[in-house]
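Can't paste images in this forum, so I'm doing it all in text. The chain is below; anyone willing to post the predicted structure tokens underneath?
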Amino acid sequence: MSEFNYIGSELDLFAAAHHWKSYWSAEIRRVIQGDVLEVGAGIGSNTPFLDTGQLGRFVCLEPDPQLATRQGKRARAGTGKYETSCGTLATLAAEEQFDTIVYIDVLEHIEDDRAELKSARDHLRSGGRVIVLSPAHQWLFTPFDAAIGHFRRYRRPAIQAISPDGLELEMCRYLDSVGLLASVANLVLLRQSMPTKKQLRIWDTFLVPTSRLIDPLLLHSVGKSILAIWRKTV
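Text version of the structure:
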């Protein structure tokens, strides 16, 4: 059993961000296939958005025992088709292989992110994919990032720099251009360590749907989050 304890307190708050989860999941569902490993699955609020309904084995990996327990209860209360495992990639047996490995707002919490991607590569079958969604732009690093244990935020050059041998970067784009403006406002004016429920509801209900319309027009060149997909070539 892992002794890791997640320091963040935002998981329950962001569990209600259904418009945002629907947005990013629509961007990646076409490449989620086969056996899936969700790394840092937390309380399982993202898991249903990753499930295309035509997948094989689905493992939710979470290092925090308390979160993993909540996740397991949530899975059993639902369809029960998701496996819960308390640990990290380092605790998985080498023979554990997957077709898709997903990190949703997780990689920024891992100090050695390049080593993590190498480990993910080693647990991928040939042709499999690693999918990462993370906060964008280090200049937007705020007390909120620090409060929930972020080591960094990402830009495209940083994503390219951590790409290990054997993983080809297929796609890298920004999401939520309108939300970027809200993040700038928080950076300059509010500097909150945590958004309120009302602020989150306004962002998810009004800003995210607007971003979903505008982002393609901007060719996904602007946004407060970054989405990257790698494919294993060996």
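The beta strands are 36-39, 58-62, 83-86, 98-104, 124-135, 167-175, 225-232. The first strand starts at residue 36 and ends at 39.
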